[in-house]
Amino acid sequence: MSNLDRTPGLTPLGGLTDVAIRPVHELFAGREVLLGESTKVRRLLPNLGRRLVGPWCFVDHYGPDDISTSPGMQVPPHPHCGLQTVSWLLAGEVHHQDSLGSDQLISPGQLGLMTAGVGIAHAERSPVPHPALLHGVQLWVALPDGSRTVAPAWDHHAMLPVLTEPGARTTVIMGELAGAVSPGRTYAPMVGADVALDADGEVLLPLEPGFEYALLAMSGSVAVENATLTVGSMLYLGCGRRDLRLHAPAGARALLLGGVPFEERILMWWNFLARDHDEIEAARADWMNQERFGVVRDAGAPLPAPPLPAGRLRPRGRER
User: Fold this and answer.
1) How many CA atoms lie within 13 A of 306 on its CB side?
2) Left, alpha or beta for 200 (phi > 0: left; psi -120 to 50: alpha)?
3) Which of 85, 157, 234, 253 could be joined to 216 by an S-S link, Cβ 3.0–4.6 Å?
4) Is 116 exposed, middle or buried (0-12, 13-18, 19+ CB in 10 A)?
5) By CB neighbour count within 10 A (0-12 exposed, 13-18 middle, 19+ buried), where does 121 fall?
6) How far apart are CA 302 and CA 122, in angstroms?
7) pTM score > 0.90 for this model?
8) Residue ranges of the Pirin N-terminal domain (predicted)?
9) For residue 212, what is the enclosing H or E element?
10) Radius of gyration of the chain (CA)
11) 3-state class of 284 per DSSP?
12) CB under 8 Å to 179, separation ≥6 — which residues?
């Protein structure tokens, strides 16, 4: 997944200034962004009011889109460093290729997890032929300082733990929830879970009081305490909760994201996470000089990096 904005802004991340240490309700609507040649996404994170939820630093929700007469997702080779990417599908298929030589078809219910670490390049496309519908989320996780230069890796997990109870099924995508642990490798305490609710279904999710959380409605509408969350919107919940009750009058799919608040101050620009301007500048130069990130073979021409903004980029906290 990529931030394909040709004039990407600097996004400061981290620090505890704006972490809600008590339960809150902050509702955010997605901002429509074009991803590749034909896929429109709703960008929920970062937004003007919230930069991070635990280590989760980037959330795109797309679909359901009818791509029966279009190419579907078409994201050329592009670089990443200092983060992990998490691909999660509700419908359709995505073909992942990377500079390690990985070549994988991702289907609904399967975890596609790429650890960029010191640097990797990848491409994502709808296969040919492809299913008529495409629906999913693309997520980034910030790597903490001690892990941000690990060797790049690709992991594909077809089987994930599922918590089942009457009216609800919760798939643990990343981290741990209610004793169920995802096989996806993590570098900080966190959770990502897909909650599928039947019509009039209800579930009580156990939470960690020290985590901050957010909930994204991927389909249907979800009643969360005294709020109603509709498709493509995200509710930031803050910290201090021990559980969360969800109810879906007509059925729904919701994505729970959480983790220990990310204390480190970092910079996000284009597809790079770094600690200062010099690192961003070096990553851009390496990509343009075909160094560090490798080559994604048989995936078309790579994306050129946008020009850096004028002046030096400086890491700051979570200020809005």
Assistant:
1) 16
2) left
3) 234
4) buried
5) buried
6) 9
7) yes
8) 41-141
9) strand 212-220
10) 18
11) helix
12) none
Residue bearing tokens 């220990």? 260
Domains of the chain: 20-259 (2.60.120.10)
At residue 259's C-alpha, the angle toward residues 227 and 31, to 5°, is 55
**Which two structure tokens, joined as six digits, stand for 25?**
């309700």
Residues 6+ apart with CB under 8 A from 254: 194, 195, 197, 215, 216, 217, 218, 222, 229, 246, 248
Sequential DSSP letters for 10-65: PEEE--STT--SSEEEEEEEPEEEEETTTEEEEEEES-SS-S-BTTEEEEEEEEEE
| Residue 289 burial (10 A CB sphere; 0-12, 13-18, 19+) | exposed
Contacts of 10 (CB under 8 A, 6+ apart): 267, 268, 269, 309, 313
Which residue's structure tokens are 């009643």? 223
Distance of alpha carbon 219 from alpha carbon 254, whole angstroms: 7
What does the angle CA 55 – CA 59 – CA 64 come to, to the nearest 5 degrees? 150
Amino acid at 282: A
Whole-angstrom distance, CA of residue 12 vs CA of residue 46: 10
pLDDT at 31: 86
Contact 234, 183 (CB under 8 A): no
Report residue 86 as tokens.
């998490």
State residue 261's pLDDT score.
97
